[in-house]
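[stage:ingest] chain + small molecule (cytidine-5'-triphosphate)
[stage:ingest] validated
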Amino acid sequence: MNILVTAGPTREPIDPVRFIGNRSSGKMGYEIAAAFAREGHTVLLVSGPTSLDVPDGVDFLPVETAGEMHEAVSTHIGRMQVAVFAAAVADYMPSKVAKEKIKKSAEALTLELVRAPDILGTCRSKHGFAGTLVGFAAETENLIANAREKLTRKQCDLIIANDVSKPGIGFESDQNEVTLVYPDRIEQLPLASKHDLAHQLVRAILMLHTEKSATH
Ligand code: CTP
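[stage:predict] done
[stage:export] tokens:
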């Protein structure tokens, strides 16, 4: 099968030397891409800047901004059967990028931010993607309720939810503890290395895809 995985942070430029980024390491998405490839699938990994090596047997498309990631996904989503959105995409970006480095002068500086494209959120509505759609939800409160709201709003088949307020898991960690939120049930997975967890997630996603294909 053809599988799309997005991973890593995005960088939204402010001027030629500065950007708005986030603490995503990209590890979870890279491990998921690697696990799909080990299962024999054709994987395209669309990734923001990370310090990770590209997994063996994975096609790689590097991007920087939410806009570039959106364009890459728009180009390739049409031939995918499964899409997993693990990237930590900026929700807002500077309304304009300064051509020259912004010099300090006043005591305060206000940046105007505008909404970045919601890549996962437009997969069904804009691109008519009919395959198995999986998103992530990084939450600090009301984990299940917020994940369920995202599942419905972004028309996903599964949301992989993690509580980023818990120390030692999620961002910048080698371990993660997630809850799988499906339309009709939830499943809590135990704390595991991102490597082992990726294998379990891929199994769950492939099973979901088989169930979905059988009913369509
Ligand atoms: N996502 C995306 N494009 C964006 C923002 C998010 O594709 N511009 C995807 C992420 O890859 C993830 C999911 O949407 O799979 C959830 O992202 P999150 O930022 O947690 O959700 P939001 O809808 O932006 O909600 P909020 O930030 O308000 O919690």
